[in-house]
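Researcher: Re-running this chain for the archive, since the previous output was lost when a drive failed. Same request as before.
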Amino acid sequence: AEGRRGDGAAPPTWRVHGLTTMAEMTNKHVAAVLEEIAVLLELSGENPFKARSYTNMARTLEGLDEEIATL
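Model: Regenerated structure tokens:
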């Protein structure tokens, strides 16, 4: 398959926490990504309420009984 650059290269494989597809991501994986974003926002001096919203969403996902992939 031709890549986006039009040079015949295959498109890059994106990996998030070692996973290659969104279907592989569990609530735990998504929560870890959200927590990481929250930390990065805090470290960059972003609005603390914005960072806290990511942390709160991570906690909410961890508490769900159903995987978000099935919603």
